[in-house]
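Lab notebook, bench 4. The sequencing result for the construct came back, and we need a structural model before the next group meeting so we can plan mutations. Quick request posted to the team channel:

Model the 3D structure of this chain.
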Amino acid sequence: MSYEIVDTSKCQHLLKDGKLPLSAANSMNYVSSCISQPTSWVAQNYELYNIYDLVCKYGIDEKCDLDLTISNQPHCPGGLGSMLQLKSTAKNVMYATRELIPA
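Done. Here's the predicted structure in token form:
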């Protein structure tokens, strides 16, 4: 296997809408760290979603807004941190075989 270290923007086409999806309920430390560096790639290219867990089993599939002039917590239309069960289509990719398995 060969690889090349490239600028993050070179991989942007791999992300839906070119944005890094993050859990609104569980990513605020990371987001805060990144937006404290406003010219960083993440600060300019993240989106918060109301997905509660990393395997997309719980939450609401909706975008959330973050307005730090109002609150340090994101605002999600369905309520931040929803535990509603999702019909997840998330899959894990097995590195050695590239087999897709349910997350």
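The chain is about 10% helix and 20% strand.
Will bring this to the meeting.
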